Amino acid sequence: MRLRICGMLHSAGEIEFAAIRDMLGVSDAVCSKHLKVLAENGYVTLDKRPSNRNGHDITWVSLTDEGAEAFASHIAALQLIAGMA
């Protein structure tokens, strides 16, 4: 799940929390848990911004440089493994 999140962010740059949740098809709690772990490890940043829609803040998620490097490393390792099969 976390690799998928990093992949989405690597492609898009910045994504709203609700969009990540919807693309993964998980609950708020599950999505929040995975994003918290990624943030605690320095792979993503979580940025709350005011919403014009309903007055609630919207959380935007983006990949850090460290997260992008880790993602690239994981993808390279998977490609190496796939090449061995």
From TrEMBL:
InterPro entries: ArsR-like_HTH, WH-like_DNA-bd_sf, WH_DNA-bd_dom, WH_DNA-bd_sf
Winged helix DNA-binding domain span: 2-79
Name by which UniProt lists this protein: Helix-turn-helix domain-containing protein
Stored PANTHER family: BSL7504 PROTEIN (PTHR37318:SF1)
Protein source organism: Bifidobacterium ramosum
